[in-house]
Amino acid sequence: MPGCESYSAENGPLGVLVLHGFTGNPASMRSLAERIAEAGYSVELPRLPGHGTTIEDMMTTTWTDWSGAAEAAYDDLRSRCASVAVVGLSMGGGLTAHVAEVRPDVAGCVFINPLVKPPVQEMVDGLVALLEAGLETIDSIGSDIKKEGSVEASYDATPLACAQSLFEAVKGVNADLSKIQTPSLLLSSRDDHVVTSDNGDDIVAKVAGPVERIWLEESYHVATMDNDQELVESATVTFLDSVLKS
Question: Which domains does the chain have, with CATH numbers?
Answer without folding.
Answer: 7-244 (3.40.50.1820)
